[in-house]
Amino acid sequence: xxxxxxxxxxxxxxxxxxxxxxxxxxxxxxxxxxxxFVAILNEVRSRFGFRLIGYVVMPEHVHLLxxxxxxxxxxxxxxxxxxxxxxxxxxxxxxxxxxxxxSEAHELHFWQRRFYDFNVWSSEKVREKLEYMHAxxxxxxxxxxxxxxxxxxxxxxxxxxxxxxxxxxxIGEEKEGKKIKIRTLETEGCGTHRSFSPQGASGARxxxx
Length: 209
What we know:
Layout: E1 14-20, H1 31-48, E2 52-57, E3 61-66, H2 74-89, H3 102-106, E4 116-120, H4 123-139, H5 154-159, E5 174-175, E6 178-179
Antiparallel strand pairs: 1-3, 1-4, 2-3, 5-6
Helix pairs in contact: 1-2
């Protein structure tokens, strides 16, 4: 039985979320697929009214640094985002799910069911997560410089350019007269010291759904 995963919403925090393609397959491995993902992300952002502070789309996973939406919560946003991307990019089949065999049925899945969520409320952690995201394509040896990977928010912070999607800058921002702080889940009594991201970035993680 899987452990229940806890989320912390309604505090006005930023959320660093990570979600992966099914079985870590590179379903976002083409420029067309990544372009389509970003376009759908923009549609969902407009629908729910959340702030997008940073992002990177990798071949088999995505990182977002986002604010809480004006309606619903980040879990609902990701549910809708994943459904729209899956329906827009997943290969179609004429067979019903019940007609498919076990291994063939698994091919219908685009995303892993769960996602990681790290509550961020310090300017230092905002910068850390942005730098981590923007370095991902280089660490994976996909490009030699972040400027060569347009599916991230790097160009906004480096050059002030919009890139593929508008970014709501948070560097140096203050919230309600106080510095944003980081709420680690260790202090909430339910933390973990296991790695947070698929590439092993350290940090607390919230529970997944």
